[in-house]
Write a structure and sequence with these properties.
The protein is an alpha+beta fold. The protein has one domain: 2,3-Dihydroxybiphenyl 1,2-Dioxygenase, domain 1 (Roll). It has two helices and eight strands, in the order E-H-E-E-E-E-H-E-E-E. It has an eight-stranded mixed β-sheet with strand order 2-3-4-1-5-8-7-6. A hairpin with a 5-residue loop joins strand 7 (98-104) and strand 8. It is globular.
């Protein structure tokens, strides 16, 4: 069960499917994490405590590690972010398992929000 308004995922970026494979190998060898692939450009693992993903798709890809929060109502959260001074930097898009968007907080930190 997902917890509303809580961090659900930290996503790392990779510039290509080859880099994604190298990152998976690294985390598997060092920490024993097992990954589930979603095509050639995305893998994630629940083995890291907080779920960790590696994004090499180029879609919704941040330059730094990306904290991802789960919410029950994506549109209501999007409105709250705008009202609180956040900026939507990648509009809502679908992915296997749900939909998400990215925003920056007033200090410029990028985060994402997703929902099923």
């Amino acid at each position: 069960m997902k917890n509303n308004n809580q961090l659900d995922l930290v996503e790392f970026s990779a510039s290509s499917p080859e880099e994604l494979a190298r990152a998976k190998t690294f985390f598997t060898n060092v920490f024993g994490w097992q990954f589930k692939d979603y095509g050639d450009g995305y893998s994630d693992t629940p083995d890291s405590g907080l779920t960790s993903g590696i994004n090499a798709t180029g879609e919704g890809q941040a330059k730094m590690p990306l904290p991802v929060l789960y919410v029950e109502d994506l549109e209501a959260t999007k409105e709250k972010i705008a009202q609180a001074g956040g900026t939507i930097v990648h509009d809502t898009y679908s992915f296997p398992g749900g939909r998400r968007f990215h925003f920056t907080d007033p200090l410029g930190n990028e985060l994402a929000v997703w929902s099923e």
